[in-house]
Amino acid sequence: MPFAVLAFGSLLALSPVVSPMALAQQSQGQGWGGALDTLNRAVNPNANPADQDRDRDRDRQVRDDRRYEGSSTDDRRGRSEYSRYSDRDLQDRYERIVDEQREMQRERRGLEDEMNRRGIRR
Asked: For position 73, what pLDDT does the model report?
């Protein structure tokens, strides 16, 4: 038990969010529960379900915004659907597609060889 109290105290002392003055006010006003809540917020700031919901909604909005970029509602006539990609993104995407094509060609050759071995016509 003394070790747990020492560990708890050292976490509170090292926490950048909790000042010793605020901790004294917290523990006087709310007891250990308030100090534990303060520690929990300092260690895990995203633990609040309302914050998680807000972050999830924001992520969903970003995905929706990206989904409609380049669509017919976007007024960028004459531009490619890839015009918003950076040079590095374009290169990465191109290399990924080339790799996928090579893999599909290997699979196709394997299938053709097996079909030929079995006498199956394409």
From this structure: 52
